[in-house]
Amino acid sequence: MSRIPAKRTTEAGPLLKLMYRIAGRRYGAVPAPMAVVAHHPKLLRASVLHELLAEKASKRLPANVRELAVYRVATSIGCSWCVDFGTMLQLHEGLDIDRLKHIDDYADSPAFSRPERLALAYADAMTGAQVTVTDEQVAELEAEFGRDGVVELTYQIGLENSRARVNSALGIVDQGFTSGDACRVPLP
């Protein structure tokens, strides 16, 4: 259970009930971070709007590169909720989730392509206690993905750092999105 309990539907006003209904249809269940942040309605609205806009805008990178980098941040920080939800998103993108078991060995694993390894190394460089990104690393990413791709990758990695740290601090843990117990969202 999270450190701040989720706001129950019975405590929700009409707008929050609508948001819960939409989220439930989209994901199979109301995401726990949403239900916790619901205690602060203005931040909830800002968060939902930001997430929708970031999702809509992030279309320059291949989905596998973006999702792997975000997943790497989640595993590095240790956000079990983010790992669970991120795995479900990759599954729905039609990506190979079996290779996620080898994420810690990405640098040498044949399961990951060169562009994926570059993005994963960048995620590592952005996620530690100190940011260790180098000029050479950014130049290599720019050559691979273009400037807009580097900006998108940086933004998504930074956004996942924020999500994972907030969820971890609030004690929000995995919800069963990939186990099939909590969420039975049909594959596209």
TrEMBL record:
Keywords: Oxidoreductase, Peroxidase. The keyword Oxidoreductase applies. GO terms for molecular function: peroxiredoxin activity. Residues 57-124 form the Carboxymuconolactone decarboxylase-like domain. SUPFAM superfamilies: AhpD-like. Transmembrane segments: none annotated. This is Alkylhydroperoxidase AhpD family core domain-containing protein. It comes from Amycolatopsis saalfeldensis. The lineage of its organism: Bacteria, Bacillati, Actinomycetota, Actinomycetes, Pseudonocardiales.
